[in-house]
Design brief:
alpha/beta, Nucleotidyltransferase, domain 5, 14% strand, disordered C terminus
């Protein structure tokens, strides 16, 4: 694969995410995770969005066996059940492939929940946390769209309507795409064309 993939077939969630991590160079990545509700490190789905230099976004997603039952409350949030993650890889099996990819780029997250979840999952398997520049798209949205403070706020659900985003909330791949779109929209609003620059570039926003 390369950084301009063709349209993938629907995955087991019915959404069109890549089945393999794409190759190539990207401006930045965006991450979202869903958890089983048994602690913040109980990741049951990982989604990554790969943002090209032309602004195109490709998403990869994988279900993850959290090695613990998924609570009924979290199922009501993201729709995933124990049956969905049965036979999925555990975090320890996925992480060695994810680490070099994620550490090569700035990684956007919408709030710091995803970073904390990854840190907790790493601790659970005895691995060092990711060493990558983390970018909070909530911070970017607050700077770019201050008029939303007290007027729906800067959560993905409200930004979906305000910015006209098209995604299924609480699917990790879709939410990763949305976080990337929020970062791009904030960049366009603020006029910082190099704010989330290419491989290992210094970030232009002062986080």
């Amino acid at each position: 694969m390369n950084d301009r993939p063709t349209s993938p077939a629907p995955d087991r969630t019915g959404l069109r995410h890549l089945g393999e991590l794409p190759e190539g160079r990207f401006r930045f990545l965006a991450l979202d995770v869903e958890t089983a509700g048994r602690g913040i490190g109980s990741i049951c789905q990982i989604g990554l969005a790969f943002v090209g230099f032309d602004g195109r976004i490709a998403t990869w997603s994988s279900l993850v066996d959290p090695c613990a039952p998924i609570t009924r409350w979290t199922t009501r949030v993201h729709g995933l059940t124990d049956a969905d993650v049965a036979g999925a890889p555990v975090f320890a099996a996925l992480f060695p492939e994810l680490r070099p990819v994620m550490e090569a780029y700035p990684v956007v997250q919408h709030s710091r929940y995803d970073e904390r979840a990854f840190d907790a999952a790493c601790r659970a398997i005895g691995a060092q946390p990711l060493r990558c520049p983390w970018v909070n798209s909530v911070t970017l949205a607050r700077r770019a769209f201050p008029e939303l403070r007290g007027n729906g706020g800067h959560g993905l659900a409200n930004l979906k309507g305000v910015l006209g985003l098209d995604f299924r909330h609480h699917d990790a791949g879709e939410d990763a795409r949305a976080a990337a779109q929020v970062a791009l929209a904030a960049e366009a609003r603020l006029g910082h064309q190099r704010s989330l620059g290419p491989l290992h570039d210094q970030l232009r926003f002062d986080f």
